[in-house]
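Target protein
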Amino acid sequence: MTDSTQIATEAPSAEKTTLDINEILQILPHRYPFLLIDRVIDLTRKRRIVAIKNVTFNEPFFTGHFPNLPIMPGVLIVEAIAQAGGALLLTEVEDRKDKLMVFTGIERARFRRPVVPGDQLRIEVEVTAWRVTAVRMKGTVFVGDKRVAEATVSCQLVASPQAKQS
């Protein structure tokens, strides 16, 4: 007969599938005004992540893009895809404080409708190729049920400047 304590310790631990802003800040090096994800609502290790970005009129880029017609720049939407993917990638890296994730490619970027203050972006990223230090991901961004953008991004882990000084 098996002891119930043994069963409890052998049971697989539940993997974390969501991240709040404080947990995101522990994973990504980005900070205001360049942190472009607010919450992770679904995470499947090495496969998929879904993140949320709340777009507010207080975003600094709206001052100049464009006066009297605020539209979120498409390159920042692609950056949000990369940051969501980076959060997925960096959760697998134990020494992430010594690493930096950098873009190595952006392909097939399409912008289908403008993103404006008050929108909430749902950023869905699927891994298409995974290596220990690099990843290729397809991201699709929605506002409600409307697709607003998509892009395939490639990213690579490199040593951070702080790691090189140590």
In short: The chain is about 20% helix and 35% strand. The CA atoms of residues 28 and 166 lie 20 Å apart. Confidence is low (pLDDT under 50) at residues 1-13. The longest strand covers residues 146-159.
